[in-house]
Amino acid sequence: MDNLVYDTQNIEEKEPQIEKLVNYECNDCHCNFSLLSENHDKCVYCGSNNIITTNNYNLDFSRIIPFTLDIENAKNEYKKHVLFNPLIPIKFKKKSTINKIQKVYFMTYLFNVNYRGNITFLGADKEKVIVDKKKLVETKKYNMLSEVNFDYSNVLINPNEKITMPEFTKVFQYDYNKTEELREFDIKDTVIINSTLSNDEILEKAKERISKSSLSIIRNNINHQLNKVEDNQTNVNFESAQKILLPIYFINTRYRNKNYHFLYNGVNKNTYYKFPAGIIETIIFALIVFGIVLLIGYLIASAL
Amino acid sequence: MKYIKLLIVFILFISIPKNCLASTNTLTRTREKPLVPDRVIVDENNIDEILLTPAVSSNEKIYDFAELYTEEEEKKLYQKAINYTNNSSIDLVIVTTKDLRGFNLEKYTYNFYDYNLFNREGIIFVIYVNGNKNEIYMGNIGSSSSVVFDVYTDKRINQTLEYIYSDIKQGNYYSATDNYIKTVEGFYNLNKNENYLINKEGKIVKSIPWFELIIFASAITIIVTILFSYKLRINKLPTVYSLDDNINEATMMVKFTKDELIETTTDKK
Predict the structure, then answer these.
(1) By three-state DSSP, how is residue B118 classified?
(2) Which candidate in A120, B59, B142, B262 could, as Cys together with A231 as Cys, close a disulfide (CB 3.0–4.6 Å)?
(3) Whole domain around residue B81: which residue ranges?
(4) Does B268 contact A137 at a Cβ distance shorter than 8 Å?
(5) What's the complex ipTM?
């Protein structure tokens, strides 16, 4: 990994297109988000009022994928999962909660990357053999040298630590041929959730992901039972990188000191959710099911 | 004239009260004529017991020595007993007494049945009125493979006696006996199915296997709750975050330029 190199200068820094974007930071959850408006009073992530405006800055995003789905689609999808599950706490089913579903743009990074170089592997095969009527294991070791080249395009990196990898992978799937130039009306009244990582951290994350993916493919091509990287002389070269705003309907509900997300892709309906089971709701539900089953069982047993 | 005589005889026949169905008349046993069924071998060991046991006509079925029933009640009970016997071929005998003739209740019950000319298979119910203290007993008699033992198990006999005892205690002897016949008839119809019992209304009802039901209901509750819990999070999440779709296959290259054996070792397992 030490031999991998990359150039942070390749991240595109576009000329400012939209002025006066207000940056907010939440003192409670440290979420960082931006808006064109200066009148926002709640954290988009945790709902706390304890937010401060930090430095105003100029928007430097080059591309955007605009919303094509209405917020009603997102609300209906949310209701579909929440309203019919009796274990989910009432808090999640309240109209006021449902109305908190909001339209947000997540700031992400899109890379085109080349991974190339040489990797030396130590391969090994083990085989059972019988020598002088004794069962032994014969191990053959191999020295392997591989030349590799991978060109990756549109590798999306999640720069927000508050969004987990399963959430990101499940929901953040877009057709990047449909990106558009950013216009001011695209983000009017819409929150932009900013990166929580620095440029270097994002590149490191991208590098790690590309390396893991490439190594996995290379290993699949090795014909020996065991393999171990002995020497890695590969480079990760970022050929292009751009910031991109991706449309998501989002709600974070805090319940028993934990955050529960519902994410709904604003273009293709990909959804991620995770809800808790309420203790009281679970007990009531279990008692009702138990009572119904017992009643049915009693009626059947009496009738037979 | 002949018809007039017949008519007079008929009128007399229906007008004279008949007391022959449920008499408490007994016959007299002697050592020479003990009046026992052929299957009973009379010898010195049992002759005293036989002589002490009341000898009755086996047709009467209801032997109300303690006079607990009215004439009308005896008739009704007799009819029910006959119906049961005709239906089942099991003799149904009911005895009420104030005198056990020196036997205990169990002995009296079995002696009464064994030393009178009843069927080989039968059930007998005895109410012993002893001042304010009433006792009841139910016996089943038959060969070893007899159906009476399958139908009238100890458990069912206890259930039956337990159920009717409340009426006996309150002096409702007819009601108790009537319920007794209904119950034994019900058990006969249910035959060997053990999952029945008598409810408070005297009906034979399905015995509810509550323990099994509770286990079953608990299991279903757990399964349904787990299924709903499973729906709390989205299914089919990717387990591998692959970038395979982002690779340009036209330019992809994985080429092994060297693959040489460098060492062979042999070890114990």
Answers:
(1) coil
(2) A120
(3) 21-193
(4) yes
(5) 0.77
